[in-house]
Amino acid sequence: MNHIILFDGVCNFCNSSVQFILKKDSKQMYQFASLQSETGKSLLKKYGIPEDINSFVLIEGDQHFTKSTAALRVCRNLSGAYRFLSIFRLIPAPIRDIFYHIIANNRYKWFGKQESCMLPSPEVRKRFLD
User: Residue span of the signal peptide, if any (predicted)?
Assistant: First the structure.
């Protein structure tokens, strides 16, 4: 099954989150593409997701997830204690997403923004879709 994470490639917080996932994804399950890339735009279109989405997107097979649901689904596959964060999926998504929206709406102000998407290191480059 494909596990693809679409992320905001110019967001410092999002890039840090991708770096974190790369370190904790011991099974190397996840591949990545920025929302701004041609691959990212193509996948958004394929799954009927608006291009101006204010969330990262997790694609698992033929399903997609956004906001806190996506984040918690990623956590369940990470190494260490982070997988236990997925228990928060028991909280209804509208309540969880309140906190997600606070971070998403302030991420540039709080964490900054890059002029262009990050360039992955050669050792993880194969996990990034063009």
Answer: none
Residue 67 φ/ψ region, left for φ over 0, alpha for ψ in the -120 to 50 degree band, beta for the rest: left
Q: How far is 66 from 57, CA to CA, in rounded Å?
A: 5
For the stretch 67-122, pLDDT in tens is: 999 999 999 999 988 888 888 889 999 999 999 989 888 888 898 887 756 666 76
Q: Would you give the end-to-end CA distance of the chain in angstroms?
A: 19
Two tokens at 100?
């997600």
Q: What is the pTM of this model?
A: 0.86
Those residues whose C-beta lies under 8 Å from the C-beta of residue 120, and which sit 6 or more positions away, are: 32, 127, 128
